[in-house]
TrEMBL record:
Protein name: Myosin motor domain-containing protein
Domain Myosin motor residues, every copy: 1-297
Annotated keywords: Actin-binding, ATP-binding, Motor protein, Myosin, Nucleotide-binding
GO molecular function (one): microfilament motor activity
A biological process from GO: actin filament organization
GO cellular component annotations of the record: cytoplasm; membrane; myosin complex
Gene3D superfamilies according to UniProt: 1.10.10.820, 1.20.58.530, Myosin VI head, motor domain, U50 subdomain
Residue intervals passing through the bilayer: none
InterPro entries in the record: Myosin_head_motor_dom-like, P-loop_NTPase
Record flagged with keyword Nucleotide-binding: yes
Length: 297
């Protein structure tokens, strides 16, 4: 599974929802499960809001039952599925916990400590470990020699980014775990290899639609590039290849052209090497050489 849209957990276009499974869990879980996952009373959440429309709630409950049935068919045990639900519930509660910059140069902390306590309980860690791993993560070596990835203690924005990174990471791990469970159910002793490749397309990213005032990020560029490539593949298989077959068989047809810019034109802007850039790379970017490139190319 190529989960290109994993950041929808923390950022999504205006008037769009988060991942469906989160709403299915909030609306479809029975009373016992809701109590175990602390979903009986949800706090204010800037990332995931409960459904309000009656028809949406009914659809979510029905979808939840289909998911439970599918897990049963795949032979996923109650303990395994409970672990998945705990991770997803942790994502929900992290959104409600929030993050703020500590006062008087103190360390970053959760806005709602009670929600953080729920997350720690679901993940089987202490609140102190949760705070340390989110706001002061280290990699490699001993705790005293580890490398701090990002100092979220410097500003409020850094604290929020650290929290969002944990939310994205937890959701991604839940998806990976589910894929492993499905592969286990479909595995065979025969020496054959079959695979299904699923791509979750993120959709074209626009900072304004996501409520961001800053410009597009490098991640937005990568997402939009992936969309252009997928759209180009779809266009080739759906239209271009069919036109070629009709032409080979001398079949006449009416093709309505579009004024939209073809995807290949956008892709070429990114992939095609530019001579003027190469001049700079080769350290031959004297003003006369660059001027000659502009005038004669």
């Amino acid at each position: 599974v190529l989960l290109l849209e994993k950041y929808r957990v923390i950022r999504r276009p205006k008037d769009e929802r988060n991942f469906h499974i989160l709403y299915y869990l909030m609306e479809g879980a029975d009373d016992n499960l809701r109590q175990e996952l602390y979903l009986n009373k949800l706090g204010k959440n800037d990332y995931i809001s409960p459904l309000e429309d009656t028809s949406d709630k009914k659809f979510a409950s029905g979808s939840w039952q289909r998911i439970i049935n599918a897990c049963s068919v795949l032979g996923i045990t109650k303990e395994e599925i409970k672990t998945l639900w705990s991770v997803l519930a942790s994502v929900i509660h992290l959104g409600a916990a929030g993050a703020v910059k500590g006062q008087n140069n103190a360390k970053a902390q959760f806005k709602d400590p009670s929600e953080a306590q729920k997350v720690a309980s679901l993940l089987g860690v202490t609140v102190e470990d949760l705070v340390r791993n989110i706001f002061s993560p280290k990699v490699g070596g001993t705790p005293t020699r580890g490398l701090v990835l990002r100092s979220s203690e410097q500003d409020a924005e850094g604290a929020v980014e650290a929290l969002e990174g944990m939310m994205v990471g937890l959701y991604t791990e839940a998806v990976n775990a589910l894929v492993s469970l499905i592969n286990r159910a479909l595995s065979s002793t025969n020496r054959t290899s079959n695979s299904i490749f699923i791509v979750d397309i993120p959709g074209f990213q626009s900072p304004e639609d996501c409520g961001r005032k800053s410009g597009a990020s490098f991640r937005d560029l990568c997402d939009n590039y992936a969309n252009e490539r997928m759209f180009s593949l779809y266009n080739d298989h759906t239209f271009t290849s069919q036109q070629d077959k009709y032409a080979q068989e001398n079949i006449s047809f009416d093709f309505e052209s579009s004024d939209d810019i073809p995807p290949d034109a956008i892709i070429d802007l990114i992939e095609t090497a530019r001579p003027e850039v190469e001049e700079n790379k080769l350290n031959r970017s004297e003003s006369i050489i660059i001027l000659s490139c502009v005038l004669f190319q």
